[in-house]
Amino acid sequence: MSEPILRATGVTIGFPVTRGIIFQREVGRVQAVDGVDLELHAGETLAIVGESGCGKTTLARGLVRLQSIDAGTIEYLGEDITRRSGRGLTDFRRQVTMIFQDPIASLDPRMRIGQSVQEPLDIHGIGTPVERKRRVQEAMERVGLNPEHYNRFPHEFSGGQRQRIGIARAVVMEPRVIVCDEPVSALDVSVQAQIVNLLEDLQRDLGLSYIVIAHDLDVVRRLADRVKVMYLGRVVEEGTGEQVYTAPRHPYSSALLAARPVADPVRARSQQRIVLEGDVPSPLNPPSGCRFHPRCPVAQPSCAQEDPRLEHAADGHGWACAYPLEP
Amino acid sequence: MALLTVENLRTTFRTDDGPVGAVDGVSLSVDAGQVLGIVGESGCGKSAMSLSIMGLLPKSAMVEGSIRLGDRELVGLPGGELRRLRGAEMAMIFQDPMTSLNPVMTIGWQLVEAVRLHQKVSKAEARRLAIEGLAAVGIPSPEDRLRSYPLELSGGMRQRVMIAMALLNRPRLLIADEPTTALDVTTQAQILELMRELRREVDAAIVLITHDLGVVAELCDEVAVMYAGRVVERATVDELFARPQHPYTWGLLASLPGRNLASERLHQIPGSPPSLLRPPAGCRFAARCPFVMDVCRDDPPPLTPTGRGTAAVACHLAQDVRDREGARLSGEERA
User: Fold this and answer.
1) In order of start, what are the domains of chain B with their CATH numbers?
2) What is d(CA A228, CA A213) in angstroms, rounded to the nearest whole number?
3) B20-39 pLDDT per residue, tens
4) Which of B218, B253, B255 sits opposite A192 (nearest CB)?
5) Mutation to test the A interface, candidates B158, B186, B248, B260, most A Cβ within 10 Å
């Protein structure tokens, strides 16, 4: 396989835990992301799924260097960018951009949307004012916004159109990679479909690579070529969408998939349900051994001691479980 | 006999730009022990309707028509009487438990208050009922939890506390407004399972408001699909998924990513819902409808029975066209 565009090796991200209000002192560190490896190839979509608190958003922020990482390396086109700063970091950020979940929170309400879309070009000093304006209009057209709306304000747009503005801001830089953090979860179903189709069109036309962070497994199934399932900061299963969705080997992936409501009343009534008990444990004090064992329906006594490593089959499908499910 | 009967409900908000008809002539009913799902996208009026039923809208909102709980008319009831009904006869669960629970009071304080507002019982008895209530919704060590503050609980646990609080006084009507939308899929599955159990045990009528057709399929008996303030289709859940009748329902079903894996592109409903400030004269879905005819733009179609059970649809398309398209859609998806 060709050299990946983006490669992360052993990425670990922690947050300090402090006590005290005036004399704050660090009493520990929460490991939000714990030794994650990842490769993103040209033109593909890699999805990262898991429950809230599994570290997927922290990982995404780390990959675009919005979050400093404690250990591990991130390479972009074979170059280590983990410790880059200044000019080098700016160059990287021109090529790897991000789309956020809440399009309302990520747009300045007092800025005209044309200016909002143009802002990244201004910051990076790309082109002359005339060229910038042309690129903004192209980007707006590409995402299905009317360029005549250049002078409108965000509140004049519906949720779906605001998300289009967010996407226009990301593509105006002509990036190679876009990291999408829950790109459709704030939207209505019918609008969700519009955005999913738009992301697919942009990928085909511009040759983009995506990293999609999402908790909606059906949207992920639609968009992703490869999927990583995270639990408490670690990747517990990875593979192609086909492998993970039709033959999950890790009990957690299987439970996650079974938890999706089925839009079919006849099947919903007949379906045998494995409901995962309890909540995700606190990452402050992760369980011993396999981190999933307290909630695992097939856990064995040894799971409380031994921490399984991510092992891969010949076809690239990988899972971190001592007693994997039969395919 | 229906426990809740809503007839020709109109809820209008006064705004600076003029009146907005959030709910425009909705009629529906729910029996005890039944779950009615109300499906629609943001702005379709589903939340305005549930708040109208609960009498929780601000004074600037005008509620007309009839809402009957049993044989008591709720529209025009004085505030004090409504307050006595709320929490006792009818209760509501909201999407985000954090905004409905008081962050500076313990769970126990809030539950005991809810009991003592409506029942003449001692503090100790109220506390016992609170513990029972928490245990019934599957909260481990309920006695200890009484001392917890909402912030100390996870999202799923908070939603359980909300459900426990809503059920404390054995209401006859429970309205759940997007009860699982803010939760992870695994937690959502737990809460749906809990609601399925409660439905069997508590003989209440449940109105479930959601935008998620998956949740509807899992939990509801009957469904009303709302669009721009009106009910466009009503049917049993099986009927709705097997023979959907309204083009808007077809669009919703076809745009579900999980049901339509084989299709090259995800079906999308073009455009966005109309402004309720100046709603279109005819069918409100006409501008986005792939089957639109001239008559649709001028005459609003009435909700008309399809002849199959309780099913009804508001659409000018001929019945055989609707049957064919609906069957094609659900057949295609199951293939």
Assistant:
1) 2-220 (3.40.50.300), 246-334 (no CATH)
2) 10
3) 999 999 999 999 989 999 99
4) B255
5) B186
